[in-house]
Structure formats: C-alpha cells, structure tokens
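Could someone model S-adenosyl-L-homocysteine with this protein?
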Amino acid sequence: MNPLAAHLAERIARDGPITIEAYMTACLLDPRHGYYTTREPFGSTGDFITAPEISQMFGELLGLWCWSQWAAAGQPQPAVLAELGPGRGTLLADALRAIEGATQKPAPFDLHLVEASPTLRAKQRETLGGRKVTWHDDAEGLPEGTPCFILANEFFDALPIRQFVATPQGWRERLVTVTNDKLAAAISPKVAPAGLIDGLPEAATGRVAEHAPIRRDVMASLSRRVARDGGCALIIDFDDPKLPLADTFQAVRSHRYADRFEEPGESDLASAVDFTDLARVAGDKGVRVHGPVAQGTFLRSLGIDHRAEQLCRSASPEQIKTIMAALERLVSARGMGNDFKVIGLTLASGPTPEGFGEQTP
Ligand code: SAH
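Reply:
Sure, complex below.
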C-alpha cells in the first residue's frame, strides 16, 4: 500500500467504509498525498492533456467570448473574470492576451481564481506573470455584488461524486473498504435514504448510478451569483448521455485508464458530467441555460477555423502541421469535439450568446 492507501485503510478500520465522494476528495486533494495537491499532471509528458494545453486557440476564443459578453452587458466596471480549476493557468493567459490584442487595452477585469491546490496556485502565479490575481478555495468565495464572467474547463469532472448500486431492496451506496489488504469497492448494507437518491429511476439489480451533490451545490452557487449580480458562466466538460445510470468513475495515469482503487493519489480521478442535471439546478435558480452544445460545434461557431488559418499564415510547415492537428483534436468527433459539451449561463433576460445559436455552415 502507498502512504495514502495506508492512511485511508487506517481511517476505514477506525470509522468504517467511506463513500466514493470521500475517497475521491482524499485522492485528489489530501494535503500531503493528493493528486492535485502534490503534482502538476497536465501535458503530453503528464497523465492527461486538456484543451487549453492542446492549443492557445481554445483560451483565446473563450477569452474573446467573455469579453463580448462583458461588452454586451454595457461594459460594467468593476467586472470579474473568474476561472474555476485553472490547472497551469494556460487558458487564462491565452484569454487575456487575446482580449488585449483585439482591444489594444488592458483587459477590463479583476482576476479571481478558484483553486484548491497550492502547487497549482504557484504554477498559475508563474504563468500569469505580474498580473494581480486573487485566489479562493471555492466558488462561494468569489466577490459578491460585481458581475462575474466565469470559465470552468474540466473542473466539474474533478468534483467528487457518489455512486449507488441497484439491489432488490432499492439503491444502496457504493463504498470503499479494505479487502485482503487492498482498497476495494463494497456496497452499503443499508438502502440509501430517499433524499440522497432523488431523481434516480428504478433499475435492474447490479446497475450503477451516479449522483453529484457537490457539483449541484457549485452549480447552484454560480447560478445564484449570475442571477443576482449579472455576468455569465461557461462550463466545458465531458459528458455521458447515459447518466445518471452509468459508471463513469475513472482513473487515468500516463494517458491510460488505471485501476481506481490502486495507488490512490497517483492517478487522476474524474467522472463524466451530467449536464441535464446541472441545467435543471441552474434553471431553478432563475438563470437562462444555453446548450449543451458539442465542443466542436461551439468552437467552430466562435471562429476556430479562421483563427487556425490566421496562425498558419505566419507559421513554418512544421508549425502548420501542429496547428492543424490541434484544430482537429479540439473539434472533430474523433478527438474531443463530440465527447465534450459546453453550457452557458446568462441572466434570464439576456440574448443567446455567441456559440449557442444556429450552427454556422
Ligand atoms: N482547467 C484546467 C485544469 C483542469 S484539472 C485545464 O483545462 O487544463 C482540474 C483543476 O481543478 C485543477 O486545477 C485542480 O487543482 C482543480 N480542482 C480540483 N478539485 C477542486 C476543488 N474541489 N476545488 C478547487 N479546485 C479544484
């Protein structure tokens, strides 16, 4: 057992089996052994690669989207540009450069980042150079009373979920316990209380369902903020249309799937995002929800093909190959274009933002 597994086994021996939610939280954010707290996992040499790390075009287009939302809102001052789970800070750096390049003025935003990992906060500070940035532990900490323009790429998939297994008696929670000196999945002896599994349909014995109260809470918090203070949010992540009836909890290490319960803290844990569920939460808080639309469709309607062409004009043949491969990866169904979806939140009275309207041919 690695140190985190030993620590969790001790906790389980003392207090009993833990939920998948508690397990995911420990694996990702344990102060001494957590995946995000102790390392910088992104890039081709890391464990996985995200859209902003594939190409600068991603952050640039998202930055210009935020800027145009800000302009359409009447250029409020002050205004906040916020990112949840900024990783290495690449998206935000590309966004700010694009805004400042297009307007020839400093970006009109105070910058606020929601980041739990001290290691990644340090990396973000470095990537963003001398810019003034304020960090928060969670979305609740973002400033109140100021319109926030919020971006979250591959943030919700890292927020922990709970899992339930259908039994003849009803849904029971999947737990993590110790079997033969190893961490392993188990099923709670008790049927889950109704409040916890609200909305789960009946399913055949053995089926697994996922439910993410923490994601709902974050979504509710962002929605309340937009409804009250204005601004907007753009959330991008991978989904699974079968949710909530699916087991999408995954571990990824060196670009491959790994065992979810082996060597905790050493692989990335994530699960697909149920956009239907999130949209319902947001709708209840009085904001307008746009999408979900496929990432490929969204980026194309924001003009990614044109941006790629522009970059290619001053590029070497080798660079052109890289630019076109990145474009393909971001928009095509073989890459991330279909598996990743985008939803937008705006004021209920707001117009449909760019990217969510009619598809451009
Ligand atoms: N958006 C980045 C990184 C995605 S990885 C990109 O696209 O490259 C997930 C990010 O969310 C990391 O920065 C991680 O440290 C952060 N994170 C994960 N769980 C968090 C939580 N509960 N609270 C705050 N930040 C969290």
